[in-house]
């Protein structure tokens, strides 16, 4: 026994040549079509629509979506590899792709066949985009504490509420929306929440404040307001009053994508730091020859590869439908995002003044890395999840 897992076989990562060929094709596309435009994205705070169009033509939006719903298949590991490569070039573009998974996962896992065909297929073809509206002004980590309301009226529901920090809201055609359909029950705070698919063009759906956050320029979040929005009852995802399980289960999967974003950021900044330390000379020698620099480079590489292995491992467990993937996903997300922030910070320090020059394009990764430590459940919440899952899986107890 490898506590809390049952065997050392539980730690295998199922990578094959198909994954590597896919990674190479994604990297080639991004370096040719996206990397030359990173500065434009930073300056305008917009991702050019032709990039999305080209990605759709390449089938990127269908990765991780079963073929029967118009996707390319590939599973969680293939999705992870794609997200890592995208974030290596422009992290905010990885966010723009990731919000489609935040929309699609709950429908694929809990939605009706009609919802899958109606909403997932356009997403997979790149013809539409989705977003995930759960976080509220009162907080996002406490899913059971949401205050938006959905009242049943004949054959539909009427939703009222405000959601904040919603990534992809501006471009989204559809939203996954959580709302309270009944009051909490004693000892069951989670009960009474229902999840819906809401179309953006329905009356009462409005974009509010545009949040100018520290990073992820090109895909910064919005407030979304729902003012007496009528939603047909067939747009309920999962069971009425049990939407908490839908939301939390979604994050178990999608936080692996955040870990992958962090790995991409770490990879990019490590590469830049290593290259610069080989080119920059000081006191007549390359700066990598200085002990403090080569120690930083070695430590950066250690953290990078550890983060990648944790992330690929979590994805492999998810693809194998192993319940242990939940704890692995939290491990990967918290470790990788903190590693990305640390590695980016060291890369800036190694570059000196150039590291904080916006024209160089390095400091943006540090700003973006901070975001990865916060969304999809803060790293403090990940540690709580890790401890609770550890006790549950090892001893069958709830804490």
From TrEMBL:
Residues 132-229 form the Acyl-CoA oxidase/dehydrogenase middle domain. One of its GO terms (molecular function) is flavin adenine dinucleotide binding. It holds the Pfam family Acyl-CoA_dh_N. Its cofactor is FAD. Residues 17-127 form the Acyl-CoA dehydrogenase/oxidase N-terminal domain. Residues 241-390 form the Acyl-CoA dehydrogenase/oxidase C-terminal domain. The keyword Flavoprotein applies. Keywords: FAD, Flavoprotein, Oxidoreductase. Belongs to the acyl-CoA dehydrogenase family. This is Acyl-CoA dehydrogenase. It comes from Caldisphaera lagunensis (strain DSM 15908 / JCM 11604 / ANMR 0165 / IC-154). The lineage of its organism: Archaea, Thermoproteota, Thermoprotei, Acidilobales, Caldisphaeraceae.
